[in-house]
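Quick start: load a record and inspect it. Here is Ras GTPase activation domain-containing protein:
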Amino acid sequence: MFAIDAKFIYKSNQTSDFTSYIYYIMDSGNSEGRVLVWRRTAWNNSTALYGELVDLMVKDTQFTCGLANLLDSSEVDAFAKTIVNLFSAANKTLPLIKYLIYNEFTSKVMAEGEGSILRGNNIVNKIEGAYVRLIGANYLRYVLSDLVTRVVQDKDLRLEIDPRKLATYNEEDSGYEQAITNPELQLQQNRQALLEMSQMFIDRITDPQVVEEMPREIRAVADYTAESALKYAPESLAPLVGGFIMLRFFSPAIVTPEYSKLIASDIVPSRRAKRNLVLLAKVLQNVSNGVEFGGKEEFMTCMNSIVTDNKPKMSKYFQMICKDPTSPTQKWADLEGISMQQGFVVCKPTGAGGKQPAATSKWMVTTPSTFSPIQNGGNNKSAATVKLTNSNGSGAATQLQQAPTPWDGYIRHVEIHDLFDLHRILDLYREKVAIKMAVSCRATLRILELLKDLGPSPKTKIEKKKKETEEYDQQPSGNLNSGFDDFTFMLERARFLFQGPNDKHDKPVFYLIVNRVKPEVFDNINPLIAHIFKVMDSCVNLSSYTLIVDMSWCHISSEMKRAIFTHLPKLAEVFSRKYKKNIDKLFIVHPSAYTRAVIYFMRAFTSRKLKRKIHEVYNWKQLTTYIDTENIALPETSKDYITKSYRVVKVNSKGKRQERLIKFTSNSLLNIDPKTKRVQNEKRIDEIEEIASALGSIEISMKFKSGGGSGMTTGATNNASSTSSVASPAQQSHKPRGPIGFLSLKSGGNSSDGVRRYVCNHELERDHIIQDIFEAGFKVGLAKYPNSQPSSFGHSGPLPTEYRVIKVNNAGKHQERIFKLTIDSLLNLDQQRIKSENSFAGIEEVALDFENQDIVWMKYKSEPHKRKIICRDGEGKQLFEVLTEAIHKYQKLIDIQEGDLKLAAEESGYL
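Running the structure step on this input writes:
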């Protein structure tokens, strides 16, 4: 497929220009050497641009569905999750799902037959699954938590009925030999136990009182499916409705209860418990769709009696869930955002052929909503219900026009990472969108214009590395160790894993320095395994040991996540149980949102004993309790760590290279010298005029406003004269690569042009810097729009991120400091020098003094006592509120990271 150049984007609204647009795409040729350019309007106007982009997709469901049909299978999961999050913010997910379901039936019944409807992992199923998991999390816990916990904790519960797996299944028994003495008797007992336990789940799920608590949104999706099935595929009604409610909703939660939080965090399902849950899910699935067992799973045929016995109960259950308890005649109207505003109501009878509607029934067939959405403020359950009658006064299903809602009514409820995901997918498929959808979807041309204004996606998915990995996997077995010695030397030189001096009890201590772990480490798994054996094996097999995982300065990319989950299964198989059994303590030094999510996620793969050995360390000095200070082998930089930052090389006007750290606040970019720990300067996001980087390069050039002042009150140097000059993007694209793999740019020239060059460690790190610039611009843009929910102190706009305070230390000494909030931490500055940094994850408590509201009390997790902070007049409330809000958002980020981890694990085939 030909590539589209960033500068060739359709500008006109006239359809007649579409031919020339295609010509420009085809003429752009090879993408090698292409320069990616972002101009200041991209991030300064990102709120408006992203807002309109989402609004167009929300209003034009035809475009959203058309885009879904263009996606490769590898993108469907991520796209479904993103779309559900964006449409839910606008309260328009149900109309989209309704449209998708009707479209699925009408397009496939005639073309492919009933058996093809809602089969496989198509976009309808993916979006349904993502939506019901979002809506029904609390309901799942209400229905299933007690039963699932009982299954997981019952060590005597045996449900295995597959004779081929019985021996392995029984290995967890202490009396293993006795357990297999009479396998036929045990199978008979297990069958009876599975029948009884399955019936308990069925009775619980179908209990009328339990059904009453089911979210109406889930019931609406079931009803849409039932209505379409009655009209187009009546013989498949039970399998289709049952498949949705069980396969997409209940079964995933039962099989993986730790992720659905059906069990307490300290409960770890055993291998037998996991198998028991899988067997229960199998039975429930067939009971729900009324299909008897047979074929490939012959051993399950003994469960057919429960399938036939429960058919009446399931039929009644389906009828119950497809009823709208709030509005029986005009079902789900409020959830679909139907408006009664004058001028927006259009009633159409839904009887056959457009004639008088048939009598209202439980399974009434309605037509899909294809009209513009409106915002439905407030909670769905408390929204007003709409009841209409047709011209004859009889109750009938109606199709109602909806009033459009401006995007600024819901943009605050959208997560920026979802916008980045949408931007990436649209950017990746914009050629196909331009060619295949410009005529059929009216929103297409405007969306292409918005993509031009936004520039290239800041969240680039790197296919090159994936391709290289596939080529490596296809190599003959004899070549697996090619370059083994060179790769081993690289691993040793990286020094990401090493042994330090023993602890106070003379036990060995190993260090894993995460910021030294690069994705390339996983390119060749065999030398990696050999290296770990070489460093750890002799000690681990002989005695207990301590592992210190240093997360200081690290930033884990999505590529790294995929690499980890791709290779974790093999690593788990290769290393003996002693690696887990003999570990005495595992310290996570300076954990961030991502690492805390990792700890939570890994609970599913570790024993209960190991979980008790994990300790979070928010100040490296906490390690002195276990290891003598002089024997702590952490890098010096980890003792004054920066949570989320980017280690780069800044190239000045004379070509001199200077190590720097780039760190972000909510509206600015900090340039830090890692050696002196000084903030050299601070640039506001709106001062960046342009960013350029060649495709595949790890170098960024930033052009700033000439003469722009610093946002810091510390007197930090911010002269444009300290910056360097670079060649134009056109010149850069033809320059050869330098010896260390980054684009060679012309240095020298007039330094007053306000251009800086930064060399990153990796292309993905470059992309993350661009993402953070976009995110800061987006947050600044939100301030332009009124907030319908002001803070508890009455603030509706953004609060300052910098405060002059007096910090009272443990000895009672008063110290003048500047507190500066970054995107994930609180910096304690003495003028320009960073004295300390505390991650929001490490702040346990923030309190406002009752008697003097210019005093804020802070409790760090690494310290036993609260710290007293004295603020300027009137700033105490602001500091308290801005810290409280930042910590709250940080906790939300942890939840998002947990979800991303699960998705990365699923994409890698780990789950």
